[in-house]
Sequence to fold (331 residues):
Amino acid sequence: MEQLLFAGGTIVAGVFGCVAWFWGSNWVLDSLYPPRGEDAGRNILRANMIRPWLFIGPAVLFLALYLVYPVINSAWRSLMDADSRDFVGLDNYRWLMGDAKFRESIFNNMLWLLVVPAASTFFGLLAAQVTDRIRWGNAAKSFIFMPMAISFVGAGVIWKFIYDYRAEGQEQIGLLNAIWTSLGNPPETWLTLLFWNNFFLMAVLIWIQTGFAMVILSAALRGIPEETIEAAILDGANSWQLFFKIKVPQIWGTIAVVWTTITIVVLKVFDIVFVMTNGQWGTQVLANLMYDWMFRGAPDYGRGSAIAIVIMALVTPIMVWNIRNARREML
Fold:
């Protein structure tokens, strides 16, 4: 109850704070530069030059406080020792290059990058195409999109039950083992199967991101001019040719945006691995490794910050390209 009251109070304070800032800043500005009298024209011009900065000022301030400052602070800490007292230069980055767990994390992240964006985009595109052609397509879209409403932690818990293992002879409560044993096979500890357990973890993120890809790509498919489709049909194009040679090329920019957006999510994946395996059995990823060094055991802020900078260095170019491509699509 206390948490609900605190959350409600925060929402009310935030809304009224925004209203108060909007009203108060306008009142102060109009008092300094009144839109009347002999200098009304000049005052209005000056006020209009200042007003946008008053409105975006809080956003810029919080962006600098919660985004720019942490990046600078992390970059500086990555050049310090474990306690952030002594300057060690690039020693933390040299350690990264020689650490077996870091190499494992890089390999797994690359594996996730190869599989998850491709699979999510493919299944999302397939779902978008199929659901637009059936009568109950909107209901189907709702069910496919529903996992997007579940947190990564919640999804990890759900799928951990799906992969659950019970000793042979006991009733299998895990869906996958229940199906597997019904075919006459012994139960498997799916999350400890080296290499393949990474794909079992990836299935969770694919399950979540397919709904996102479907919604975006469905809107893109509906935006394709009907004239091009009708012309292709008149020229004798079959369903496969119509889809792959007419529709897909026209929404390729949107596909790229969806792909890169999911790629950014993959580079920062943490919750699923943390909940399901905690990076054990060869499933370590960069974000989980960073958490281990930063907050577990004897914290090493230098090494943890170095891993954070590596993640940021991998994410930033993709994010910049994604934003530029999205802007190009809007023009």
Q: What stands out?
A: The first helix runs from residue 2 to 32.
